[in-house]
Amino acid sequence: MMKQKYVCILLTLCFGWAISSCSEDDVQPDLVDPQITNMEIGYDNQKEGIVGEDFHFNADIVAGEKIETLTVQIQQKQDQSYTEEWEYFVEWNEYNGLKNTNVHKHFTIPENAPIGVYDFIFTVVDTNGVQIEIKEEFYIIS
């Protein structure tokens, strides 16, 4: 009888230990989203690029952890027609590992870019794997 009491007490202690080991230590913290502010697409934020000419892009970034990648994509819209297929992609690696930064870039809209309405997509991915994407309507003009 005494042995059964010890077994019951031992089982109760083991059960209590098992329950208490599943504490909040196992809970992952909420990941903070990266933030994009003061974004300018084109001069004076006109959201236009001129074929064959310099294009201005600016944005302030604060990562949830640290910046892993920054990319810009210019993609043709599904509901538009163009003279030919074209898209643009650029990734900037010089910001990797920074917590916050100002991205101020200039690049040329290629001569072969068809005139039309596009999606301009700016994406920030931080080292937590959390990403934010801003999509704006963008015009390529001659």
Describe the structure.
This protein is mainly beta. The chain contains 1 helix and 8 strands; from the N terminus they run H-E-E-E-E-E-E-E-E. It has one helix at residues 2-20; strands spanning 35-41, 48-50, 54-62, 67-76, 88-92, 100-108, 116-126, 131-141. The strands form 2 sheets. Strands 2-8-7-4-5 form a 5-stranded mixed beta sheet, with no helix packed on it. Strand 7 (116-126) and strand 8 (131-141) form a beta hairpin. The longest helix is centred in the N-terminal third of the chain and has 19 residues, at 2-20. The protein is elongated. The model has no long low-confidence stretch (mean pLDDT 87).
Structure in a nutshell:
The chain has 142 residues and is mostly beta strands. The protein is built from 1 helix and 8 strands, in the order αββββββββ.
Summarize the biggest pleated sheet: 5 strands, mixed
Strands, total number: 8
Rg on CA atoms, Å? 26 Å
Could you give the order of strands across the largest sheet? 2-8-7-4-5
Instruction: Provide a count of the helices.
Output: 1
Mean pLDDT over the residues: 87
Helix/strand order, N-terminal first: HEEEEEEEE
Helical content band = 10-25%
Shape: elongated
Low-pLDDT runs of 5+ residues are none
Strand content: over 45%
The rounded distance between the terminal residues' Cα atoms is 95 Å
Which structural class should the secondary elements be placed in? mainly beta
